[in-house]
Known about the structure:
Layout: E1 6-12, E2 25-30, H1 36-44, E3 62-67, E4 71-75, H2 86-102, E5 106-114, H3 121-133, E6 137-142, H4 153-164, E7 174-176, H5 185-199
Bound molecules: guanosine-5'-diphosphate (GDP) and magnesium ion.
Amino acid sequence: MEIHKAEFVSSFAAENQCPKTSWPEFAFIGRSNVGKSSLINMLTGRKGLAKVSATPGKTQLINFFNVNDQWYLVDLPGYGYAKVSKSQQRTLANMIEGYLAKRQQLALAFVLIDANVPPMPIDVAFINHLGELQVPFALIFTKTDRQKKGVNHTGNITAFMEALSQTWEPLPPHFLSSSVTGAGRAEILGYIARVLRSLST
Ligand SMILES: Nc1nc2c(ncn2[C@@H]2O[C@H](COP(=O)(O)OP(=O)(O)O)[C@@H](O)[C@H]2O)c(=O)[nH]1
Ligand SMILES: [Mg+2]
């Protein structure tokens, strides 16, 4: 898929405030600092589109981006950020839950997982919750360019898929990405294009 247009539309605090249009939506979600903003910039080819921040927990609203006047890229707040207050965490969780549970236009959620860490229970729990909500999803393992001593991307990814195999059959599609090298871009955009085609037939 060529991206000939990618622009920020607006931010919303609740599902019922989101656009009434029928364009399919692809939501991106993951733990704070997983590399979501960087990935959105990499996929769209627009460097400053989503703010990349070294301070986690900044995205507190549902952000909509118009892509190609055809679909919305939806940037959801990160989950599991410990440094915001309990009440703020609850507000965020309700906002995410409301969007995921109610949104008719939601075509697919991409769940971002850091390839540099072993499976984290919060990620597995979130994915299993998506299953309960019957939201179609795919996984993106991020930061696969990072070379740290003792870190084994393949081992982490295999362990993650193994953890999921306790609840999922078949396993969800998964992609490997790096916002530094652009790895995974063609595969992820190709997958979005395929889902879009399947919706229109
Ligand atoms: N090496 C590497 N670092 C990344 C990658 N993606 C994000 N980062 C870094 O991880 C931190 C968090 O990234 P950001 O996109 O703001 O994460 P978000 O909180 O999920 O939106 C920043 O310091 C980024 O530079 C990647 O693919 N490779
Ligand atoms: Mg961000």
